[in-house]
Design a protein that fits this description.
The chain is of the alpha/beta class. It has 16 helices and 23 strands. The radius of gyration is 24 Å and the shape is globular.
Length: about 525
């Protein structure tokens, strides 16, 4: 413990285990929801780890939240226990008397969001999804036991989880500052230097204020800082360009996530900014982490922008992962990156003088057997009300089933003009929008949905497929058998994206560990070939 603000991994774990034993003895037996209502800083960190250690389900929250909101969250989540903790280190564990046994069997933690009405909504984070996210985020951020990660986000936000759990999984140090509110830029930089912080994860607006201060004061980041992650809000491109030139030893990532799935789902390495030419004034969100899938539901046939739908790779036993409509407009451009274009704002629709709630309409469609996900929207040009459902079954049968169900439970004004059936979230990293459209059109026409792995292997020569991906994610223009991926300028994020692109092209998972174990081009091609033949 240094300066009263920092605990090493072992210190926090020891205190968390003591608190975990008390949680386990409170609120009944079995797995239960535990509401976190602690002061900001170390109390919240220890309480989160204690609930996870106890095998229970933490409900993210803070003592700073209004009392009415905390009460509503406890009720909505079925919380059986409340943990409070003060900055002095004293904790109180109390039973609510109203908890339900194991109300969220697949959840590792619960996040709280606000819907269109402003009422708090519970977002359960799937355990398998979270484990896949942890694996990817540790790899992309390069977290190690030598890292000292700043704990900046309030405890009610999902980024708080990202700052704490991956760091402790890597054996690193969480550095908890003494402030209740974020300080001015100069004080912030002084704290980073005094505590030798290596990784910071900041809201884009706060980072832009810090960057603007550094630019005007001709001051850089402390030499200890190796990684800055920004997100949650749009970022100004000129300040990112300045940071790239002025902070060459710092990796700067623009991240995008959603509380309903994971704190970070997309990452853009700002070193690649010169390649992001589709929208010169915008910083893209890049591409999805390997555990993610996404699709764009077009807002109109003439517009390349679509509503961003997020999903995850299939879970154990083929169980489909959760699917979430972000409500954000996005585009996948020819430069290979995904860009955001603001909110779609089409969840509450005026139709014939009647307000139609798009989220509720989609929820009713999701009740139908065989439907994996659904969204509702208005076509911006025609004004038609559309319901888009995702299913692996025959499109015409699904369309008829959904139409009949909607008519049986919803009033006439809520009935869609058209029901579109897609075969799922096929738009994975590296795929073009034209590929997605062709896949959906082929499925609707009765054509085969996708080739088998054996058919894919009969396509272009493997070395050529790998070379194209290799050149895309490194600065190298020419590649021979002895070219080393990392010596050629590739990095861990490029390695993740290259392997994801190859996985899509070969219809066979190419783990990123393969490039780390075989960094030379010739060896990597042989390793991929061996992997492909073993399928």
């Amino acid at each position: 413990m240094t300066a009263g603000y920092e605990w090493r991994h072992a210190d926090v774990v020891a205190r968390a285990r003591e608190l975990a034993a008390e949680i386990g003895a409170t609120g009944g037996t079995g797995r239960k929801v535990v509401a976190l209502e602690c002061d900001r800083g170390l109390p919240s960190v220890i309480a989160l780890l204690a609930v996870l250690e106890a095998g229970d389900i933490p409900l993210l929250g803070s003592a700073a939240d209004p009392a009415d909101r905390r009460a509503r969250l406890r009720e909505a989540s079925g919380a059986a226990v409340v943990v409070t903790g003060s900055a002095a280190g004293a904790f109180t564990v109390a039973a609510t008397g109203a908890g339900r046994p194991d109300p969220w069997p697949d959840a590792v933690y619960l996040a709280a969001t606000s819907g269109t009405t402003g009422d708090p909504k519970i977002a359960p984070i799937d355990r398998e999804v979270f484990e896949a996210y942890l694996h990817d985020i540790r790899e992309v951020y390069g977290l190690a036991d030598t890292d000292r990660v700043l704990q900046f986000a309030p405890a009610g936000f999902d980024v708080f989880v990202e700052e704490v759990v991956p760091t402790f999984r890597a054996g690193g140090t969480v550095v908890v500052p003494p402030w209740e509110h974020a300080p001015a830029a100069e004080s912030f930089l002084d704290f980073l230097e005094a505590q030798a912080v290596t990784v910071v994860n900041l809201p884009s607006s706060y980072w832009m204020g810090v960057a603007d201060f550094m630019r005007k004061a001709r001051r850089g980041l402390p030499s200890s800082v190796r990684l800055v992650v920004i997100g949650s809000e749009p970022v100004t491109r000129p300040l990112i360009e300045w940071a790239r030139e002025s902070l060459p030893d710092v990796k700067l990532l623009n991240a995008y996530g959603t509380s309903e799935l994971a704190p970070t789902c997309f990452v853009f390495d700002c070193d690649e900014l010169p390649k992001a030419t589709a929208h010169p004034d915008t910083v893209p969100i890049g591409g999805p982490l390997p555990f993610m899938r996404y699709e764009l539901l077009p807002e109109s046939e003439a517009d390349g922008r679509g509503r961003l739908q997020l999903g995850v790779q299939p879970l154990a036993g083929g169980r489909p992962g959760p699917v979430y409509d972000t409500g954000d407009l996005a585009s996948h451009e020819s430069d290979g990156y995904v860009y955001l274009h603001g909110r779609a704002d089409l969840t509450r629709l005026k139709r014939g003088g009647v307000t139609v709630n798009g989220e509720s309409l989609a929820a009713v469609a999701r009740e139908c057997p065989g439907v994996l996900g659904a969204a509702a929207r208005l076509d911006r040009h025609s004004g038609a009300l559309l319901v888009i459902v995702q299913s692996a079954e025959a499109p015409e049968e699904v369309r008829e089933r959904v139409a009949a169900h909607l008519k049986s439970v919803l009033p006439p004004a809520w009935q869609p003009d058209r029901i579109q059936v897609t075969s799922g979230l096929e738009h994975a990293q590296g795929a073009k929008l034209s590929t997605l459209t062709a896949q959906h059109a082929g499925t609707a026409a009765g054509a085969p949905a996708e080739a088998t792995a054996e058919e894919a292997a009969e396509g272009p020569e493997l070395a050529s497929v790998v070379r194209d991906a290799w050149i895309r994610w490194t600065p190298a223009e020419e590649v021979d058998a002895g070219t080393d991926f990392f010596d050629a300028g590739g990095d861990s994020i490029g390695a993740v994206r290259m392997c994801s692109q190859l996985s899509d092209a070969l219809l066979r998972k190419v783990p990123v560990q393969l490039i780390f174990a075989n960094p030379r081009f010739g060896e990597f091609v042989q390793a991929v070939d061996t992997l492909r033949k073993s399928a």
